[in-house]
Design brief:
Structural class: mainly beta
Radius of gyration: 27 Å
Shape: elongated
Largest sheet: 11 strands, antiparallel
Distance between the termini: 56 Å
Helix content: 10-25%
Oligomer: single chain
Number of domains: 2
Low-confidence stretches: 1-11, 13-35
Length: about 500
């Protein structure tokens, strides 16, 4: 099974399909009202196609993201994706008891020689991007540096500076993560969970000997502050040298399935039983317990890939944090006065090797905004994000009308009969404003965001989950000079 999607992506895809098949009236309404676009007869209604110019861009990795996001974890190798290159992503999280002082309970029954029955670091699994038939190797490394605070959000380009040696590892097969895993006691089971057993004896013995009931001056369980001094967090690192390099796991830290499980034996009514304690991710401050620190370190390496020396007739869009393209349309400056019925930007996928495109699919959604001359450089496109909201007030994400504005992934057959993806953006009202109100003609920016943020200059579009997961999707698009997959702006209009 290839390119398995998790629930939010699937829901978004259903919504997009709904817009395509049931909201055609919205997609085809004119700037004048609710009627359909009049047919192009070259007598009263005409059509022009304006050429576009593209400039390839690369985002820096300074994006910040909330702890509730689905974080990528894994490796995509250069040989596996020769067009967009290598991607590696690791997760860092602080897992801690939910109450202090903490004790395991009846310690007499714990196997002191080995510490516990087992200690397992678990991550809640949300989905997978890539080839689900190829396993990957993951390692656990303890954070050793003090630069991993809970008060500072880490951008994708950063990670804790100090990591200890590996204390556990596992080869994870994404195809089996939906299956149930039964615990040793036969009473509990779980699925949708990545499980990596900690096997380092020194770490296990120290965790055993720092229980509140042992050596009070040398334990980590009396308070949150002492825990943080000793257990600063864990790095879950992808082994990029392992043979499997074909995708990204998605993990959610605030899900209860993300935890450090300490399995041990206790005496219960004269019998020995097995149970486990869970150290989880603290999403918020609770009493004296501070929120957990976290980071996702995602790195793109383009050396040796096609995108590093991009083709002149193509644009390369990689879901954020990734790439973008600037789109300029010089012909907008010379349009005479006219009634704009429809102005639509068409973007078509340039197909590559079918096996690669099938595994590494296109983003669910592309977004387009304007390059501004202001201090913050970018702003939403006016008028067309929601035709029912008067400009200059931009809609928030709750009433952002993607059915009208467009940008969602669609499918068609090219001239060779191959199914490709394509995207369209409706900018009819913006073009009408250029013609009649002499609004400024600006350069557009097209990208595949996982969040939008214009709060610094507009006070809207706060950091929220958008229609793509982090790093989910990449697509090669035709530029304005591409012979077979030309990006273009088509305008249907009437003369005045």
């Amino acid at each position: 099974m290839l390119s398995k999607r998790f629930l939010p992506i699937a829901v978004a895809a259903i919504i997009f399909s709904g817009y395509v098949f049931t909201a055609c009236n919205k997609l085809d309404t004119t700037d004048l009202g609710s009627g359909l676009i009049p047919p192009v007869d070259n007598v009263s209604t005409f059509a022009d196609t304006l050429p576009v110019n593209l400039t390839q861009g690369f985002f820096n990795d300074s994006s910040l993201v909330a702890s509730g996001a689905d974080f990528p974890l894994g490796t995509i190798g250069l040989s596996e994706d020769p067009v967009f290159g290598k991607t590696t992503s690791s997760i860092y999280a602080e897992l801690k008891p939910n109450i202090y002082p903490f004790t395991y309970g009846n310690r007499d029954s714990i196997n002191a020689a080995g510490g516990f029955d087992s200690v397992v670091l678990c991550l809640a699994y949300s989905g997978f991007y890539g080839d689900t038939t190829v396993p990957q190797r993951l390692e656990i490394r303890p954070v050793t540096s003090g630069d991993f605070p809970d008060t500072t959000a880490f951008p994708f380009s950063k990670r804790p500076s100090g990591l200890g040696p590996a204390i556990g590892s596992a080869v994870i097969n994404p195809a089996t993560l939906r299956n149930w895993t039964v615990f040793r006691n036969r009473k509990d089971s779980v699925r949708n969970q990545i499980r990596i057993r900690i096997t380092d004896n020194a770490f296990l013995n120290a965790l055993y000997n720092r229980d509140t009931t042992v050596t009070p001056g040398n334990n980590a369980f009396r308070s949150d502050s002492t825990w943080k001094l000793i257990y600063k967090g864990f790095g879950i690192i992808t082994d990029s040298n392992y043979t499997g390099k074909k995708g990204l796991f998605y993990c959610n830290l605030i899900n209860a399935l993300t935890r450090l499980e300490v399995h041990y034996r206790i005496r219960n009514a004269g019998k020995t039983d097995t149970t486990f304690a869970s150290f989880g991710f603290a999403q918020s401050v609770t009493g004296a317990t501070r929120r957990s620190a976290y980071a996702c370190n995602l790195k793109r390496t383009y050396t040796g890939a096609e995108i590093n020396t991009p083709a002149a007739d193509a644009a390369y869009l990689q879901a954020g944090p990734g790439t973008y393209t600037n789109v300029s349309i010089p012909g907008l400056r010379t349009l005479d006065n006219r009634i704009i019925h429809r102005a639509e930007l068409f973007l078509e996928q340039v197909p590559g090797a079918q096996a690669v495109d099938t595994i590494f699919t296109s983003p669910n959604y592309l977004y387009m905004d304007l390059i501004d001359t202001g201090v913050n450089n970018f702003r939403p496109i006016p008028y067309d994000l929601n035709p029912d909201i008067a400009y200059p007030y931009y809609p928030g994400l709750t009433n952002f009308n993607i059915g009208y504005f467009g940008g969602f992934r669609r499918f068609k057959q090219d001239n060779s009969g191959r199914t490709i993806n394509y995207y369209t953006f409706n900018i009819s009202r913006y073009v009408q404003a250029i013609v009649t109100r002499k609004d400024s003609v600006r350069t557009f920016r097209v990208y595949a965001p996982f969040q939008l943020d214009y709060t610094k200059q507009l006070g809207i579009f706060g950091k929220e989950n958008f229609y793509n997961a982090i790093a989910w999707g990449r697509v090669k698009l035709g530029a304005g000079n591409n012979v077979n997959y030309r990006m273009r702006l088509r305008i249907v209009y009437s003369k005045i």
